[in-house]
Amino acid sequence: MPGQINYYNQFGDLYKQSILDCPEPEYWTTDYHVRGRVYREMKERIDLQQQLVDEYFNKDLPILDIGCGFGRQAVLLAKKGFSITGTDTSGVFIDIAKQLFAKHSYKGEFLCLNIIENELPGHFPQILLLDVLEHVEPHQRRKLFEKLHTMGEAGSMLILSLPHVKKRVTSQLNNRLRRRITQYSTYFLNREEHPYPIPEKSAMLKLSEGLFSLHKFIESTQTDYYVFRRD
User: Considering its fold, how many domains does the chain have in total?
Assistant: First the structure.
């Protein structure tokens, strides 16, 4: 995890001003100005995430956005009038999120902390974990689900997304074999966005067993989406 924090702190420092200056920070990417491939893929992903929020979340209830990054999804939620609490382990990203919300006069609270190791007051009936679990060390992932269970309440909704692992052999080998090496190397942890193995659907069901029930699963070419309900 420290290596991943360093990776995102460096990324945030490099692109901070570009993010703050972007007219649509929810869709910001490194190729935003030319509406390139990364931008198009990001926009498609964010729009689908927002559709799931609109379908399963209640605007009158607070949302906990874990791994909120620089506030990408939080910006969209704030525009719609949701009450947001965002957490992230990157202090640079949290600082950017705070500045974005101050700049646009949005309401939200942002905290730099590790959700597994720290307590938050109260319970959250709505939780987002978007593109986060793949950055958590594999031995900590069940602990994270247990923590999410204690932070929610009966019937709480959890929307989670992960990068899609393609079925082709090279992708499977990269995820299962190569990342068994990269997850233990400081070199890769400081330089790669995804050094840890990405859990597939069968692993997700084991991680959530006895804690959350899978309500909906969507598989796409870039991202997989899970909607869980707390047991």
Answer: 1
